[in-house]
Design brief:
Radius of gyration: 18 Å
Distance between the termini: 45 Å
Strand order of the largest sheet: 5-4-3-2-1-16
Structural class: alpha/beta
Number of domains: 1
CATH topology: Nitrilase/N-carbamoyl-D-aminoacid amidohydrolase
Oligomer: single chain
Helix content: 25-40%
Shape: globular
């Protein structure tokens, strides 16, 4: 399998959809100029609303979302595989789906993934999140075919559920994507270790584009978009500001890591007392 260059687009999205599309598109073009053939953007690419109700109010259904034709055309123009980490897609009067879209180089939608695990937490910092109040959780893992092998799609909080990644790796995924809008609080504590763990335990590359910095609504996200190799090395890392980071991906390194530590073949049934 041939190598390719991947890019993470790091954003600081606001609640202005048109502005976010413009900023994201410019950074996607920058990624292409740096040689990227696979480009990924973060969770909430086009809308970082102050709360779930505001996000629902500003969201569109899939047929009406203005971002989708723009990103489809851009993928086709640049001839790249483009993962839009997530858009808020209205699926009912009361809920959206937190949905990833993978565009192929012809601009077609190669895969969709709805975030499975909802971020319903009370953090020690006093931050409270109830994603499930306004977001309908997905119920299906998604693996898509790239020219270089299979990619497993996930979003943000999913990274805390290692069985999801293991299932996809055992189904052949050599690359795992984790577009995120991680809180500053949890990011400082867990971002690097969780992503490196998902890479190491699955012998897989991890590509995790992130939101970063203080957003217009006051929310703070951690940034530090990462590309991690199957042996756990960090190949590329951003800071807190919007930017593009790239790394060269050799799919053979996933096969090599799985050969050196073949734990994906060693699962055993066990009893729980």
């Amino acid at each position: 399998m041939s190598s390719f260059r991947a890019a993470c687009v790091q954003l600081r999205s606001s609640d202005d959809v048109a502005e976010n599309i413009s900023v994201t598109s410019a950074l996607i073009r920058e990624a292409k100029a740096k040689g990227a053939e696979f480009i990924a953007t973060p969770e909430n690419t086009t809308l970082m609303a102050p709360d779930g109700g505001a996000k629902l109010e500003r969201s569109f259904d899939e047929k009406s979302d203005p971002a989708l034709p723009m990103f489809s055309a851009l993928a086709a123009e640049l001839g790249v595989w483009l993962l839009i980490g997530s858009l808020a897609i209205k699926v009912s009067d009361s809920k959206t789906a937190n949905r990833s879209f993978l565009f192929n180089p012809q601009g077609g939608v190669a895969a969709r993934y709805d975030k499975i695990h909802m971020f319903d937490v009370d953090l020690p910092s006093g931050e409270k999140y109830r994603e499930s109040n306004t977001v309908a959780g997905g119920g299906r893992a998604v693996i898509a075919d790239l020219p270089w092998g299979k990619v497993g799609l996930t979003i943000c909080y999913d990274m805390r559920f290692p069985h999801l990644y293991r299932t996809m790796a055992q189904s052949g995924a050599f690359l795992l994507t984790v577009p995120s809008a991680f809180t500053e609080t949890t990011g400082k504590a867990h971002w690097h270790v969780l992503l490196r763990a998902r890479a190491i335990e699955n012998g897989a590359f991890v590509i995790a584009p992130a939101q970063g910095g203080t957003h217009a609504n006051g929310r703070k996200t951690y940034g530090h978009s990462l590309i991690v190799a199957p042996w756990g090395e960090v190949l590329a890392e951003a800071g807190a500001d919007p930017c593009v980071v790239v790394a060269d991906i050799d799919p053979g390194l996933a096969a090599d890591a799985r050969g050196r530590v073949p734990n994906l073949k060693h699962d055993r049934a066990f009893e729980v007392p």
